[in-house]
Write a structure and sequence with these properties.
Blueprint: H1 7-28, H2 36-53, H3 57-70, H4 83-96, H5 102-105, H6 126-166, H7 178-223, E1 225-227, H8 232-246, E2 250-255, E3 260-262, H9 266-284, H10 288-293, E4 300-309, E5 312-319, H11 326-335, H12 341-346, H13 349-353, H14 376-386, E6 390-396, E7 400-408, E8 413-421, E9 424-429, E10 433-439, E11 444-445, E12 452-455, E13 458-464, H15 465-468, E14 482-489, E15 492-498, E16 500-508, E17 522-527, E18 533-537, H16 539-548, E19 563-567, H17 571-583, E20 587-591, H18 594-601, E21 608-611, H19 620-628, E22 638-642, H20 647-655, E23 660-663, H21 669-680
Parallel strand pairs: 2-4, 9-18, 13-15, 19-20, 19-21, 21-22, 22-23
Antiparallel strand pairs: 1-3, 4-5, 5-7, 6-7, 8-9, 8-16, 10-14, 11-12, 12-13, 14-15, 17-18
Length: 681
């Protein structure tokens, strides 16, 4: 499967070259800005470092030549005639960058060149898209208020009609008031006509505005979605590296990449799916002699298929290996103290299979670089919980294993069922709702707090939403008039007792403010049409609480990932290091300058700093000096990853207390990870 290892480098190189060209033209025009040459030096240096990271020596050498040509003029502008040589170097680099597009290699000599995509795409922060989406939804609040006000026109129209009915001229022409009543009736008719026209006009305008707003909202929501194929290159690389490490013949194929998913979910999905793919290679695919003796084809096969299912996206990973040894999984769980022997004897096949999702469970006989630590599928389970998704495992002995991770397409907006309980409205993700029904007293077994309802030939635990949300002494709902919403999570059913079903709505999910204490079944909030907050419930937590018979079940804590701060002004280097570290199980945050990094370091406790030296503003050495002078930060280890390789820079690094010094031209993923594991674990 074709990969594009230069995707981020091409984007960054074009931006850097554009900045260099613009600055050199300013020099040619005699720009006397004393900082201009220094800015150009930083751009050239960043380009050189990024080129070395992706092993493009020719581009790196020309970027270095740019630095050499600019360095003598660090404190002053070069003569305008010098710009021609600088522009020549920029043009030579610009000519090499497009050749790094794999699409060019697949064209034949007679094919026309594909159009340049630089102006067709832009990079937008997910946070900005979230703000746009929230703004669009908030714009609907006054529109909804206007629609409510339209109800007042209907009342005014009825009053005008009643007035008109009362203004009936008397039949006796001698009454003397015929003309007055006729004029009053004429005015009442005119008033009624005006009200009806105004009501119709405002209603049409409100409908049009609402329709346009829905279209903008849907378009803004689509901007958050990225094709699933974004993940494929990293997963193919993970399968390939695991297969080579274990000496197994394996092919990897990914399908359904055109399906789109929330961009903010991609890092967590990539991490989880890397564990799934590596597990498939390590535990599923047999060695070559084993496959030959079992008359199975070579090489072994791992397939990832992405499928759209309503408002959810399913990532289905299948292998054609040996399948899961359920007995070994149960034995491992007992041996590690995760399962009591008496419980093991009562386990059904499905529950026994799901033990592989628990931390510490492994069937590997020894720990290797790929397996044996018992954390792989536990990370998948934690990721599913974090993304409000579900994970399922199926296996057939001798035929292979299927791991399915299903997540919402959008984490920002989703269709929801709106319910009312105890005077509080709440939303439930619609894709988790299996059915709704009216419950009578004869359908209930036990007390309302711990009761069950009869659903066909089975009983389903029932949880009272009013009881869960009771904060002001409100009593539980009347047992004689309950609605029940049946929810499903990971194959388990539970019912939520509510007083009223309000309807279906599309909600924008908002996180609860920091410091707000909420029941674990509350996943977030959204805004109602009038701007009032509405709770969004977590179906998985509702099912867990109902099955546990308590409304206050604490959610499981996901495994801790060591937080690492990567500080580099090069997009290529940042994205490469982030990909490597997140794939290895680290929680990575990024900073593009020393100032930004210092602000982040003072707000969160990191386990490691990965620092570049040359950055705009505060450089890497200055950042390290600030860190070492701060009592709360001085013990955080740091390593330097830089283009500078002089002995003087290495000496300054040692004086700054760095634990390792890695030159980008010698960048090696294995060495980087070994160094970080030695410092962080």
């Amino acid at each position: 499967m074709a990969r594009d290892p230069y995707q981020y480098f091409r984007v960054e190189a074009r931006e850097l070259l554009e900045g260099l060209g613009r600055g050199i033209l300013s020099l040619e025009k005699g720009d006397a800005d004393p900082d201009l040459v220094r800015r150009l030096l930083r751009l050239a240096h960043t380009l050189k470092g990024a080129a070395r990271v992706v092993r493009q020596a020719g581009i790196a050498e020309r970027a270095h030549a740019l630095e050499d040509a600019l360095a003598p003029w660090r404190e002053g502008a070069p003569p305008p005639a010098h710009a021609a040589e600088l522009l020549r170097l920029v043009d030579e680099i610009a000519a090499e960058v497009p050749a790094l597009d794999p699409a060019l290699e697949r064209r034949t000599a007679g094919d026309a060149a594909p159009p340049e995509r630089t102006l067709e795409t832009v990079r937008i922060e997910v946070g900005e898209l979230n703000a746009l989406l929230e703004g669009v939804f908030e714009a609907g609040v006054p529109l909804a208020a206007l629609r409510k006000e339209l109800g007042g026109f209907e009342r005014a129209r009825r009053l005008a009609r009643a007035l008109l009915d009362q203004l009936v001229p008397p039949t006796d022409p001698t009454g003397g008031r015929t003309d007055v009543l006729a004029r009053a009736r004429s005015l009442a008719e005119e008033l009624l006509g005006s009200l009806e026209r105004l009501q119709r006009g405002l209603t049409v305008s409100a409908d049009d505005g609402e329709r346009e707003l829905v279209q903008v909202r849907e378009a803004a929501g689509r901007l958050r979605l990225m094709p699933a194929s974004t993940l494929f290159a990293a997963l193919e690389r993970g399968a390939r590296d695991a297969a080579q490490s274990l000496g197994k013949p394996v092919t990897f194929e990914a399908l359904g990449g055109e399906n789109r998913v929330d961009a903010s979910a991609l890092p967590a999905l990539r991490d989880a799916l890397l564990h799934v793919v590596r597990n498939a290679v390590a535990h599923g695919i047999e060695s070559e002699p084993e496959r030959l003796s079992a008359a199975k084809p070579l090489p072994g096969r791992v397939e990832l298929r992405v499928e759209r299912r309503g408002q959810r996206l399913a990532f289905v990973c299948r292998d054609d290996g040996r399948g899961i040894d359920v007995a070994a999984v149960v034995a491992s769980s007992v041996r590690r103290g995760l399962l009591h022997p008496a419980e093991a004897e009562k386990l059904g096949a499905r529950d026994a299979l799901r033990l592989v999702l628990r931390e510490g469970v492994t069937t590997a006989p020894a720990t290797t670089q790929v397996s044996g630590r018992g954390i792989g599928l536990d990370v998948v389970r934690a990721t599913a919980a974090k993304l409000k998704g579900e994970v399922d495992v199926r296996s057939e002995p001798g035929r292979g294993t299927t791991v399915e991770l299903s997540v919402p397409v959008s984490l920002a907006s989703l269709p929801a069922l709106v319910v009312d309980a105890g005077g509080v409205t709440a939303s439930l993700p619609l894709d988790a709702v299996r059915l709704t029904l009216r419950v009578t007293g004869t359908d209930l077994v036990g007390s309302l707090e711990t009761s069950q309802i009869l659903l066909g030939d089975r009983t389903v635990p029932l949880l009272s939403l009013a009881a869960v949300l009771r904060r002001n002494g409100a009593s539980p709902p009347d047992r004689r008039g309950l609605c029940a919403v049946v929810l499903e999570s990971e194959g388990e059913l539970a019912a939520l007792a509510v007083e009223r079903l309000i309807g279906i709505d599309t909600v924008v999910v908002r996180s609860l403010p920091v410091g707000v204490l909420a029941d674990p079944i509350v996943a977030g909030a959204s805004l109602e049409a009038d701007g009032s907050p509405r709770l969004l419930l977590d179906p998985a937590a509702v099912v867990a609480a109902a099955r546990a018979g308590t409304a206050h079940l604490q959610p499981p804590r996901p495994p801790e990932k060591p937080p690492v701060l990567v500080i580099d002004d090069s997009l290529t280097t940042r994205m490469l290091e982030q990909s490597i570290l997140e794939s290895a199980g680290y929680d990575v945050e990024l900073a593009v300058s020393g100032e930004e990094a210092l602000a982040k370091a003072r707000n969160r406790r990191y386990r490691l700093f990965v620092v570049d030296i040359e950055m705009p503003g505060m450089d890497g050495f200055e950042f390290l000096d600030e860190v070492r002078s701060d009592p709360t930060l001085r013990d955080v280890p740091a390593i330097l990853v830089t283009s500078r390789s002089s002995s003087e820079d290495r000496r300054r690094g040692e004086q700054a207390g760095v634990r390792a010094y890695i030159v980008k031209s010698d960048f090696d993923e294995t060495r980087l990870l070994e160094t970080i594991r030695g410092l962080v674990g």
